[in-house]
Design goal:
Elements: H1 8-21, H2 27-42, E1 46-52, E2 58-65, H3 79-88, E3 92-94, H4 107-111, E4 116-124, E5 127-136, H5 145-191, E6 202-209, E7 217-223, E8 229-236, H6 240-259, H7 264-278, E9 285-292, E10 297-303, E11 309-312, E12 317-320, E13 338-342, E14 348-352, H8 354-357, H9 368-379, H10 384-399, E15 408-415
Antiparallel strand pairs: 1-2, 1-5, 3-4, 4-5, 6-15, 7-8, 8-9, 9-10, 10-13, 11-12, 11-14, 14-15
Helix pairs in contact: 1-2, 1-5, 2-5, 5-6, 6-7, 9-10
């Protein structure tokens, strides 16, 4: 729109309108400022402001009468006129709505006795942001060419103001979500053990890394009342915030029952039944729970999790712990079984989640169990922290910079036997 074609009075009005529209970045405030300005300029009987959603579908956001009242019927505008403006991307003015030869009058024009209609597209770089529409059925009502020119200018500025407000709203919401996710991650990290409890004759190390802001993996290590130490590693079936909430619930239930003095088998069985009873979203958590005693005797229960690897130092051989059970929370009365293992000096257990074995390089090749076993076998005689660091480093070298798509959790337990 060439502003030189607008009269000085209208130009002053335009500057005032643009100032009002740009006085806020709150989306609803901007929409109302635009509608107020259009109604004031055109002195229309009714006005509608429509904004395109993310699919490009127009939605009426403001519907107002000449006295500023909200219209009861937000869909009483002429779709014939609006559709033509959308198609042509041109402003349309008619003061003879009933008999204008440029279109076939629709039902809303005839029934409501509309006399004058003015409709303009709001465009930003040829992209339709929305449509502003005003009409009147008053016998003396008419829109002028000056109204058309001013509304065209207002619509152009309104499109920019609305788009800026929309982008600002998105940025604010994104920032809020990022802050909330950061807080969620901090809360989740606080649920991990701040320190590994000491048990004579054992060294324990662990690492937890989330693929997203929050994770479904977790591990827990805690001292039990009889002097033994419990270790849990688990992986929730989902990812993101739902998995994080499920993870917190599962962790609390397992720890609560363990610290209450229940046996290792009862601990997982009771936690399973509670989670299964409360879970109606189909989520479950694969879990491995071990209890270590000072004399080298250890208890192990597998609930659908990747079985740990056991390195026997005396034989310099590696074994896979038994598979067994089904994931926690899948259904009640989980047929879990306990396996007792006596560890000898130098024996090492490696616990992991499938974020390790499923990690892929740029060619789509998975790190895999065989590569994990070779790497572990080559490093098993080192201290547990060194084993954890070496395994994590090997996974990242294999991925060659590719971001992990799943959470990674490792726990290494070495029995010194002293």
């Amino acid at each position: 729109m060439d502003l030189t074609t607008i009269s000085a009075d209208h130009l002053q009005t335009l500057f005032e309108i643009v100032g009002a529209m740009n006085s806020s970045l709150e989306f609803d405030d901007v929409l109302n400022a635009v509608m107020d300005a259009v109604m004031r300029v055109t002195k229309a009987q009714r006005g509608y402001l429509m904004v395109s959603d993310e699919r490009g579908v127009l939605e009426v956001r403001v519907a107002r009468g000449m006295d500023g009242e909200k219209l009861a019927d937000a869909q009483a505008y002429s779709r014939t006129i609006v559709n033509q403006v959308i198609e042509t991307r041109q402003v349309l003015l008619t003061n003879n709505a009933q008999d204008d030869g440029r279109y076939v009058p629709g039902e809303s024009i005839v029934i409501r006795g509309l006399r004058a209609i003015l409709c303009a597209p709001m465009l930003v770089k040829d992209r339709l942001i929305g449509v502003v529409y005003v009409d009147t059925s008053i016998r003396s009502g008419a829109f002028t060419e000056a109204d058309l020119e001013l509304l065209t200018a207002v619509a152009g500025q309104a499109g920019v103001a609305i788009e800026n407000a929309r982008l600002y709203g998105i940025a604010v919401e994104k920032g809020r979500l990022e802050r909330e996710l950061q807080m969620a991650r901090e809360i989740q990290e606080s649920l991990l053990p701040r320190r590994i409890p000491q048990l004579r004759g054992y060294d324990i190390a662990a690492r937890w890394q989330s693929a997203r802001e929050v994770a479904g993996d977790f591990y827990d290590v805690f001292a039990l009342s009889d002097g033994s130490v419990g270790l849990v590693i688990a992986d929730v079936s989902d990812k993101g915030a739902p998995a994080a909430l499920f993870m917190a619930s599962a962790r609390s239930m397992i720890r609560t029952h363990a610290l209450a003095g229940f046996s290792s088998l009862d601990t997982l069985s009771r936690a399973n039944d509670l989670i299964a009873d409360d879970s109606d979203n189909g989520m479950f958590v694969t879990t491995y729970y071990s209890v270590f005693h000072e004399n080298g005797i250890s208890e192990h229960i597998n609930a659908g999790h990747n079985p740990p690897l056991l390195y026997r130092r005396a034989a310099h051989q590696m074994f896979t712990m038994p598979r067994g059970g089904r994931a926690i929370g899948w259904f009640p009365n989980n047929p879990l079984q306990k396996v007792d293992v006596t560890l000898s000096a130098g024996d090492v257990l490696l616990y992991y989640t499938d974020g390790i074995t499923d990690a892929e390089n740029g060619s789509g090749e998975a790190f895999g169990e065989e590569r994990l076993m070779r790497t572990f076998m080559a490093s098993a005689t080192r201290n547990p922290q060194a084993v954890v660091e070496l395994l994590i480093g090997e996974v990242y070298r294999f991925c060659d910079g590719a971001a992990p798509f799943d959470d990674i959790t490792l726990c290494v337990v070495r029995y010194r036997g002293d």
